[in-house]
Amino acid sequence: MPYSAGMPELHVVDHPLVQHKLTQMRRFDTPSERFRQLLTETSLLLTYEVTRELPLTTTTITTPLVETEAPELVEHPVVVSILRAGNGLLDGVLQVIPGARVGHVGLYRDHETLQAVEYYCKFPSLEGQTVIVVDPMLATGNSAAAALDRVKADGPAAIRFLCLLAAPEGIAALHEVHPDVPIWTASVDECLNEVGYIVPGLGDAGDRIFGTT
Ligand code: URA
User: Fold this and answer.
1) Per-residue confidence at 116, pLDDT binned at 50, 70, 90?
2) Is residue 113 annotated as part of the catalytic site, yes or no?
3) 70 Cα: distance to centroid of ligand 1 (angstroms)
4) Is 160 considered catalytic here?
5) In a domain, 6, yes or no
6) What domain range is 131 assigned to?
7) I need a surface site. Which of 2, 100, 161, 199 has the fewest CB within 10 A?
8) What pTM value is reported for the model?
């Protein structure tokens, strides 16, 4: 999707490997073990995109041949996982950014109101940091919005939101309350159903990851 300065950003990662793996995850009969493996592989690929514009500095190093100037990250981003399904993305993210520190925020969806209720929060210092908030499913946007409120309260310099699937309703809701937070996703699906599930979606991401029902 083209981006104009000042507009909320949405990045759809249409890489063929990401799309192929996502299709396997959507299949109802993909078992948890395989689902987890695919999610790790996909989140690793998505992390390349969400970190594409992280600032670099130069440092002096010595190769086996010469001393030279070479680029390195100014600092590692902090990753914040929205429990519990966000943890399904962590393995892949941390394979690519092993130096990242990790925060967790526990939010559950009240099944009647669909509102997010916080039950746990533990962050490293976010002051002045770039924070990548991860949750596989951007559905109503309520959990994501609540998590971003919580993250913003700790004073980060920048925040990016990474998910696997997004509903148009969730994107609109998140852009409405957090227009400064760009979103990366592998797919924008059709809609939410009457109980807040993404359609066509992949079902309950937490259940698919952890083998619960
Ligand atoms: N959370 C999920 O795990 N799946 C959905 O479809 C919506 C929210």
Assistant:
1) confident
2) yes
3) 43
4) no
5) no
6) 11-54+73-210
7) 2
8) 0.93
